[in-house]
Write a structure and sequence with these properties.
Elements: H1 2-13, H2 17-34, H3 40-61, H4 72-92, H5 96-101, H6 111-135, H7 152-158, H8 164-184, H9 188-206, H10 212-228
Helix pairs in contact: 3-6, 4-8, 4-9, 6-9, 7-8
Length: 229
């Protein structure tokens, strides 16, 4: 048994960095797909441990960068991604099916309650971006721009069961987020935008819709698209 384990470790060590990353990602994705804690607090804890601390230990063991560099280039791509993507999160708050789903756990009546909710959601956004845009994009940027096309399918699979607009937008969002992180060589742009986007969606789903007519029409269009499949 010991010899078998040593042989497996030796074979794993002989793999290229990209293959080692993909081998590491497989069991992590299995946890992501099959383990779904009921409460937001437990989900945040799961993300912190499995999707932040474990990958951090992995890259430290291999003496690699985690992908959290912050510099002018990263700041520029963060701002550009915010300008490109955040309006969609605002508009999502006017789509009826999104309003019936978010905020998860119900509307918070106080600013403190809303802030506490978003604090926990930060770990959801952070863990998600570490895995899908870090492990499955920035970490394997050695394959070139194709790195941004590695995770869209599995990212969309993770959104099965979410509202239709969110499911349909998940794969394209993955590509866009990945492209910006790839150019920035850091996951900071997608972490910031994902977290801000979650907060904006929660807020605009909690107040009167900004675009009620357009939101209803968007839902009708999305229902029609999903009906084709």
């Amino acid at each position: 048994m010991v010899g078998y384990v040593q042989d497996a470790v030796s074979r794993y060590g002989s793999l290229s960095w990209i293959k080692q990353v993909l081998a590491f990602a497989a069991p992590v994705f299995a946890i992501e797909f099959f383990v779904r804690p009921d409460s937001l607090a437990l989900r945040a804890l799961e993300k912190l441990i499995v999707f932040v601390l474990v990958p951090l230990a992995f890259v430290k063991l291999h003496d690699r960068d985690f992908g959290l560099e912050v510099n002018r280039r990263v700041a520029l791509y963060t701002v550009l991604l915010c300008l490109l993507v955040l309006p969609f999160y605002v508009f999502a708050g006017s789509i009826p099916v999104m309003r019936s789903f978010y905020p998860v756990g119900g509307v918070h009546s106080t600013a403190l309650g809303f802030a506490g909710h978003q604090f926990q959601q930060f770990f959801l956004a952070f863990g998600t971006e570490v895995f899908y845009r870090g492990v499955l994009c920035v970490w394997i940027s050695g394959i070139g721009r194709r790195a941004v096309l590695v995770s869209p399918v599995v990212y969309a699979a993770r959104h099965v069961g979410k509202p239709g607009p969110e499911f349909l937008g998940s794969a394209p969002a993955d590509v866009v987020f990945g492209a910006f992180d790839y150019r920035a060589d850091s996951i900071v742009p997608s972490v910031v935008v994902h977290w801000l986007g979650m907060a904006l969606t929660d807020y605009f789903c909690s107040v009167d819709p900004v675009f009620p007519v357009l939101g209803s029409r968007a839902q009708e269009l999305i229902v029609g698209i999903l009906a084709v499949f």
